[in-house]
Task: structure prediction
Amino acid sequence: MQLPKQHLKKSGSLLGAFTLIEVIVALAIVSLALMTLMRLHLTSGSLINRSSQQTQAVLLAQEKLSLISATGFPKPQTTSGTVKRNLQKFHWQIQVREVSLPEISSSGKGLREVIVRVSWRDGQNEKQLHMTSYVADRRIL
Result:
């Protein structure tokens, strides 16, 4: 097959063709862009996982605080346990302490501090969440 004469250079090579170096440079640019996109995708997946774990920990802490508040005026004590949610193990601890405030009642009692601690493992690191609430004795209000 003969090419028209307008596509040929004087040396006989094609006028509109890419050189090997141009193809290699283009492939290098495309591969760098793809590697950057892959790294971005992996980072976003990791951030989504961490966000999910934190959300589950917050929901667990709120659930424990709600249970304590629903029981009325809690006794000073410490309880703990473990729960598994979405293939992640969470350890929780509830500490109820007496808070003495003479302004509240003549005995200075009638307010309890409720501290909920939730911990979980994120790879090699241990993460923790603390929530504190106060429950008043309804008899003194």
User: Anything to note?
Assistant: The mean pLDDT is 85. The first strand starts at residue 77 and ends at 85. The CA atoms of residues 23 and 35 lie 18 Å apart.
